[in-house]
Amino acid sequence: MQLKKSPMIVLDGNFPKQTMREICELGRLYDVPVWYEPTSVHKATRIVEAGALDLLSYISPNRAELVAIANFLGKNVQLQEDDIEGHKSLVEHLMKKGGVRGVVAKLGAHGVLIGSLDPSHKANPYKIVHYEAPRVEQIISVTGAGDSLAAGIM
After folding, report:
1. pTM recorded for the entire structure
2. What is the spatial distance between Cα 90 and Cα 71, in angstroms, rounded to a whole number?
3. Reduced to 3 states, what is the DSSP secondary structure of residue 88?
4. Rounded distance, CA 83 to CA 76, Å?
5. Disulfide engineering: 50 pairs with which of 17, 66, 140, 146, CB 3.0-4.6 Å?
6. What does DSSP say about strands 126-131 and 102-106: parallel, antiparallel, or unpaired?
7. How far is CA 3 from CA 14, 17, 80, in A?
């Protein structure tokens, strides 16, 4: 099976839940990291519903998808778009409660949060860093910006 030789598996929220779970299980079985792109707020929680969130290596939600997933996991919050500390708490919640090792939370004009797990830091193994978005004078279109960011990180 070629999957064993893959450097990474990337899936999105368009797959059936059972397929998501099976793909994630194969990734775990063959020690191939799995990256999940939620696709939309409506589809963001499907990976949780599939029982596969803890099988992911990475997830790249936008702000609204991050809130939806955190709320599905019991956080029950609503945040202002510019509440960076609030979004950091959601990233940490996703890592602690969801078991995801890496989070790329795309916050649009407010930048990106990168969450990573470092087990060598026993007291607080969750490192979350905010990177501000560059300021530009004129934006023609933001279509595909988040996907391009995720692709560049992959």
Report:
1. 0.90
2. 9
3. helix
4. 15
5. 17
6. unpaired
7. 20, 19, 41
